[in-house]
Amino acid sequence: MNPGRGMRGYTPPMPLPELASRLAALVGADRVSTDPAKLREAARDLTEIRGTPPDVIVRPAGLEHVQAVLRFANSERIPVVPVVFNTNVGGLALPSNGGILLDMTGMNRILEVNADDLYMVVEPGVTWGQVKEHLDRNYPQTRFAYSLSPPDTSVLANTLMDGLLNLSLRFGTSSDWLNGVEAVLADGTVVRTGAAAWSTVQWCSSAPMPDLTGLFVNLHGTTGIVTKASIRLQHGKRLRRRYFMMGYDLRACYTTIRTLVREEICDDIGLLTWPVAKMLFGEKRPRWRGPGEPLAMIYLDVSSNRQAEMDLRLSILEETLEAGRKAGHAWQGPLDVRDLVKIEPAFRKLAEFPTRLDFMLDHPGGGLSWVGTYGPTSRWDEATELAVRIMEEHAFPPFAVARPMAQGHFGVLRLIETFDRDKPAEVEAVAKLNAALVEALLPLGFIPYKTPEWVFRAHGSKIDAGFREMLRRVRSALDPNGILNPGKWPV
User: Fold this and answer.
1) Host H or E run for residue 157
2) pLDDT at 1
3) Alpha-carbon distance 151 to 307, whole Å?
4) Distance CA 399, CA 276 (A)
5) Less Cβ around it within 10 Å: N or C end of the chain?
6) Parallel, antiparallel or unpaired: strands 296-304 and 239-247
């Protein structure tokens, strides 16, 4: 077995001082670190998963550095793990057997914005906050979509892992926004996909080229290291409103969401269960809900260039809610978030994305984990009720998030836990809960995204055998020595 392929048993091919020196000769001594504290920190993210400290951290400045490191690592059979900000990604950027950690945060340029053809080209270290500030200042006629990730995390990493955005209801997951990528293969070969494979003039489309971009999506850096990507922008809207509604019946909430999706009046719709509101107001791990308190909160975004159209969209919203009230569904709202912020400033955190949800991050031990799934909206009700019951049985707040995606073709169901990473009992409890949630949700068609390695090891045998064999062949062809992020996507 190639040394990079397995989870254990890797031995550096040379003494660590020599390894660091060889890498310093390629990228500069100031871009190589063997600081023990940094190496230890690189072995964990926000979740319950733990990795192995890398032997060395390399911070490339650009494409040529990435090529040089991979050529060297491939020749010496040294594992390479790409990482950007390493926040809450289920161990996907944690080394499993030492090697080189390739820290991509220094590659943080917005290389191009084409407002006419609606795309931008960015490097891995470009953040959500950076994009928003740049577009708002220079290209206000465009708009981008934002995730619930903190503003100081990577746009490109989210895009490569099929993340969700606040325009995903209309335009799908973030990988659907890719026109193509520039990536470095294990042997240092540079490949460009989409229109950039043919044209150096523009990168506005993936068509009509064969869609090789998919070789780098959801594969967690095991097929190549992406150094830039062309990502779509959208036309901006002059009028934008965000509204909140409070509901008291989960199935009624989902019925209303499905109806609004069919009406096509919203850019985004999200459901948040009751623990979110309590956490927003300072309760760390809420376990109880008063009899008069809402069960769920729905937020929705509406936009238009014309006031008449905006008024029509809002009238359809009110008609939908009124029909629900006549059917016995109780609602509070819709309430404009601007009015909510005046009443309670805490709602400012949910007023506009990107945002830092500090109530999920700033607590003892700083742990944040989740089982995020994509599945059929027809089974949302059943899946959410089952997941909530499991979370309560495991003594965790039933913190759930649901969002319709791609015009309702599928939906998100994400179950979130905060915990203390420094307390082994809490780490173990989160791991057991997540395992139980995946076990329960997979049979209903809810498939984990940004999928941790442990999910594949527990359930990978359920994946089509032909798919597994094709994936094995692809990875073996692109990375025959198995140096790229070994242990991830085990097949």
Assistant:
1) helix 155-160
2) 28
3) 31
4) 7
5) N
6) antiparallel
pTM given for the model = 0.94
Q: From CA 276, how far away is CA 397, in angstroms rounded? A: 9
Is the Cβ–Cβ distance between 384 and 376 less than 8 Å? no
Burial environment of residue 74 by CB neighbours within 10 A (0 to 12, 13 to 18, 19 or more): buried
Which residue bears the tokens 């577009």? 135
Whether residues 216 and 333 fall in one domain: no
CATH number at residue 158: 3.30.465.10
What local confidence, expressed as pLDDT, does residue 9 receive? 60
Question: How far is the C-alpha of 314 from the C-alpha of 64, rounded, in Å?
Answer: 52
Please give the tally of structural domains in the chain.
Answer: 3
Same domain, 444 and 460: no
Joined together, the tokens standing for residue 450 give 């940004």
My answer on whether 300 and 404 are in the same domain is yes
Residue 3 CA to residue 13 CA, distance in Å, equals 10
| CATH number assigned to the domain comprising residue 482 | 3.30.43.10
Residue 143 near residue 135 (C-beta atoms within 8 A): yes
The sheet carrying 100-103 orders its strands as 32-33, 56-58, 100-103, 80-83
> Which residues pair with residue 268 across a beta bridge?
301
Sheet strand arrangement including 447-448: 331-336, 239-247, 296-304, 268-273, 400-405, 410-420, 366-375, 447-448
Q: Which parts of the chain register pLDDT below 50?
A: 1-7
Claim to verify: residue 348 and residue 402 sit in the same structural domain: yes
Neighbours of 187 (CB within 10 A): 16
The domain containing residue 50 runs over which residues? 1-105+452-491
Q: Write the pLDDT tens digit of every residue in 237-295.
A: 999 999 999 999 999 999 999 999 999 999 999 999 999 989 988 888 898 898 889 99
